Here is the input.
Amino acid sequence: MHQSFLNIQRYRYALYAGLLAAACTVSYVVDSWRERPAGDTVLGYTLGGIAAALILFLMSYGIRRRSFHARAGATKRWLSMHVYLGVTVLLVATLHSGLQFGWNVHTLAYGLLCMVVLSGCWGVYAYIRYPTLIARERGAVSREELLRRLAETDARALAVAAGLDLEVRELIADAIRRTRLGGSVWAQLRGRDESMLLLVPIRAPGYSQLVSNRGQQALIAQLAQYQTTTRDTGAQHRVHQLLQISGDKAVVLRRLQRDIQIQGLMQFWLYLHVPLSFGMLAALAVHILSVFYYR
Amino acid sequence: MRVVLRTGRVGRVAGRPRYRQAVLNVATLTIGRGADQLIQIPDARLALAHATIEQRDGGLHLRVLVEELVAVNERPQTKAVLRRGHVISLGHARLTVEDIREDGVVVLRFDLQTDDVAAETPAAAAKTLQETGLRAAPASWTLAVGVLVLTLLLPLLTSWNTPLRPSLRDGALVPSDALWQPGPLHAAHRSIGGNCNACHGAAFGRVADGACTTCHPATQHHVPVQSPARAQFAGMHCADCHVEHAKPSRLVDTGSRSCVACHGDLRKLDPNTPLQNVTDFGTGHPDFSLALLEPERGGGDTVWRTRMSPAGFRPRPEEHSNLKFSHQVHMDEHGIKSPTGDQKLGCADCHQTDASGRSMAPIRMEQHCSRCHSLQFDENDSSTAVPHGDLKLMFTALEEHFSRMFLRQITPGAEQPDRRRPGGEQAVMTRDEQRRALEWTTRQSLQAARELLEKRVCVECHTVSRVPGAAGFEQWRIEAVKVTSSWMPRAQFDHAAHRSSDCITCHKGADQSRSSGDVLMPDIKQCRGCHGGSGEGTRLASDCTMCHRLHLPGRGDFEVPPQHSGPAGITFMAGVP
Here is the structure.
């Protein structure tokens, strides 16, 4: 069986985290018979202390991960510990809260912790799911190779179009110019083909309009229309070639867009996880301080 | 706006140049590097949306959307009103205003200075999140500092008595130290408002007792302040038992730790205490014991002393109220004889709560009994009722009655006093007449008294005895009656809260009781049918304060220990040993 960060050393860290979670839950249940669960009972302070210690330990993973001396095996173990204890800390913090929430800094710290853990869970999902998806979408081909193929189809299209009317040349050039790949964070994560095309009526009256060239569909339709209007067989053959090239380009473009999207999703959770955890750390500090400031 | 956009000359027709042209019907003509622009110029020097051309107020207006200037006829501008012949330079592209026709149609010519389509490539765009400039560190700093400013700095500014305090506390949605509240104030303390410092004094110090006694100065102690037990409370603070900002909202820490901390093992504090230990109502509470009134006949008057019945009602306690009463007779299901025929009585006919609804009002002869238990000695004359409650008054009433009869010369019996002599302007009785009248009156009164006391009326409910050696009215004695009104004086029972239940549910067997000696109070098992301990899940969770109070009346003021200030260590509920 492949050793991932989840099943490393036969789920040893899952077992440790599970034992801690079970101990906290049992204490909570037993104590709740005696007194109302809250953060300021003896057990409440204990659980709070455990949760705070866990949080500091979990956040130190960011430093350890960058450590120059860390070996790959060790890093994997740290990650395994980070994941399992990260899920456990949410449980411990929930028990510490006694399920008392309100519009205050205490609930803010808890809410941020929830978001940190949820974004971490997304990260776990991303690490398990997306590499498989990337392999399926891209195959063994690298992104650079795909980009090279894209440039190649564009060059071929321009070469073929060179022998055609200016309208077609302009059309091909415009389609290349207005092809969109990547872009803003939102555009990358959304993964939609936002390519455009300025449609200028060919040999016909009418207005120009800017339309979506998703999947090169608008270009292909326009080329097909042009093919029906020309009588020149040489030109028809070239347009036929252009149609094939455009189809190829659409496929390459789609694979690139999916690749950018999945790679983006695989990284994006960390851009939530890290800032949220620092915000949570600040809120946690204020939570602890304020509890003892106004006692 | 209708724009004819000419792009590239395609030849000459009849001596005039011919262009490839497109007619655009738009509100605003957008120009820039972006794919969403109507005129897209692939030049890195231009912004995604660089400029617009708009027709308004009869003019054609160029507006530059970026900080840079755009050359119109080689003169840098930020905005311009375009006229025929104007040439706008945008990167390597040139836009010429060829014509603005009478009907408003604008003719523009678009030229790329290097019209080399082979150089076209997809516009360079970020293909990874890194390339978009997304970084975790700035976001982390922003979030952490934002949290610190909003939830620490602003509340601290409120807490330190800065000039900002009022505006921060009064402003809705403005962060203040209210953000630190773990829960809202209890309803009883809402009038304090948002002023945290009304109770919270020095930073990192607990709420001082003085903050409480400012508004609650006469709070009573738990034990008599003169007793040695007071020493057990040395060093205790209000906040040891009282909580605020709790959820659900409450003022007393009803968790078992406050009361049970001491009462769980009282012998530890006082080896000689007569009190029993309590840990939880459901599982560790002593059986009930009743405070029964016991008559003690000293020389003259009866003295009532309180005697505690054995706990758990074993043996069955007996009340000695000196009253003869059978609940069974009075609550006969067929009714009981009354002046208006047979009447069925219910509990509430005699047992009524006081105005608060919590406790039972005393039962009074005049109010509850006298309608049936008439005190008339002449059954046919309602004016012959004697007063209740005092034998002397009764005898006086009898003597008055018979004296009046004598004087009016109306004699109920065969024996008649002498009639007055006729022509009696001489109304004064002779000494002999007076003596005879007194004899007659006394004899009649004693006879009526004997009838009332020993045969018909009083004896039905009261214990009537004769005092040996005494004569006249002195010879009778009625034992004083006192029914226990507070059976469990240390507990607070609320009848109003139990109104939805029948009386008989708790006062079991009341309708079958034949003797007034029967104690009809429920025992703890009865209560535990519905009430469980404080952590109870299935029954009503009942903590100590549901029935008991800590600050007992008449104990003396709870002393305020010297104020402690400054930072104190972390202590978990100082009351817990």
Observations:
- The CA atoms of residues 42 and 122 of chain B lie 9 Å apart.
